[in-house]
Amino acid sequence: MMSWLLAAFLVAHGLAHLAVWLPPAPADTEHAAPFAPDHSAVLAATRVPPTTIHRTAVWLAVAAAVAYVVAGLAVALGSGWTVPLVATAAALLGLALKILFFHPWLSLGILFDAAVLVFAVGSWPVALT
Predict the structure, then answer these.
(1) Dist CA 125 CA 16 (whole Å)
(2) What is the per-residue pLDDT across 29-39, written as a single tens digit (0 to 9) for each?
(3) Which of 13, 56, 120, 124 could form a disulfide with 87 if both were Cys (CB 3.0 to 4.6 A apart)?
């Protein structure tokens, strides 16, 4: 039961990356997100072109989502040794994305990524893999 909950969490967290970073910005400001998901103060300060910044956000979001979904499927299928490896990659991609494009609204996601990283590196509980 716990492994299915973990699998569902990993898949849902991965898909959340797509929901935040992939939709185009609405034309009207009334329905705009509370932050611009493709705005990076770090990359803008280094004079990276806006199109490259946007592409970086999309690629990191897609990579993190794919890695999280694969980690969730690995948990669901009981693929023991692959879970920590893929979950570590997913958490690192998610953290890189949220640090480069930081906004306070992403704090919960940072905590989720950090928790996944701690558990993956510190070895998952045996019952969950």
Answers:
(1) 25
(2) 666 666 777 78
(3) 120
